[in-house]
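Class prep. Write one:
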Amino acid sequence: MVPLLPPLLDHDGRHARVSIVTGSYGAGHDAAARELARHLGDAGCAVTIHDVAELLPLRLGPLLRSTYYTQLRRRPDSWDATLRRLEPGRSMHRLATTGLRIGAGPVARAVAGADLVLTTHPFGAQALGHARRRGWLEAPAVTYLTDASVHSLWVSRHVDLHLAIHDVAADQARAYGGRAVTIRPLVSPPAGPGADPLAALEIIGPRALVVGGSLGIGELEQAAHDILATGAMTPVVVCGTNTTLRRRLDAVPGVVALGWRADLAALLTTSDCVVQNAGGFTSLEALASGTPVITYRPIPGHGTANADSLDRAGLVPWVRTSEDLRAALTSALREPRVDRLPAGAPTVLDALTAVDAPDGTLEAA
């Protein structure tokens, strides 16, 4: 295979053009798209970003987003059954992949002229894969797997490459028939030493930052009570857009409830532990900042799948019981503050400019 990314400057002095297709279904996919744009832009590429939710025809994108948000808020427990039904061979998988093909044409037209197209969302992966299969997209297509675990919609056999954030996810992508390599996850540079954004609250003792994504979903309230009961840390809960949760937690003595925050990097850096439930992009940012991370009370479906993958990869331990929680928080206080993301894996740019080696691995071009 030749390198996926063409020379950053061709003989006419033109910058390589890269299009990124994100999906505004939660903040993690957009955050990954921004990091890809930063990474490739710094390397000299001309980068544009598109939202698959706005490209799907018949207003299907906003409809799917509304359905997704409603399901997560009202019935997060149903996600486990949904993911099982999306396995290849099931009728829902056939329906989903067939339905998402209608986005192939609009997506291909939006990224026309690009030398390379990347996507950070499963809907984008399916649309790009179908566009490649039909010959509507000549540029190579790459899927950046933002999740720690990989469900079937993430993988299209017709996408040229899948970039996984650890070997467990790469193996899962290969099991679904995709070509995958492990790369070092892309996250924003850790926030340097600075003022504590919560200094005015005068929180006494170590604190655990409890996160549940931008929607503030899952058993965050119970997690806060469990952390409080250990006496090891003060729970600081980032409720995101979940105003109902914030109002309830505001009434609990000893719990600090926050709404939507634009200074999450500083909150991660100044916390003593991050307690997460979905294995999303925030987990990677915390690992890069050096703050210890644990999974506790993961949401069903992709949350538990991500928890299992992160635990097996040795990145984030999954604390399964309230009895084990105090020991996990106490252990976090003893951990050194170092970047915990896997060292030695190639960067995105390395993977995109690599070629196949004789042993099937990738080597520099």
Notes: The two ends are 10 Å apart (CA to CA). The mean pLDDT is 90. Residues 82 and 301 are 8 Å apart (CA to CA).
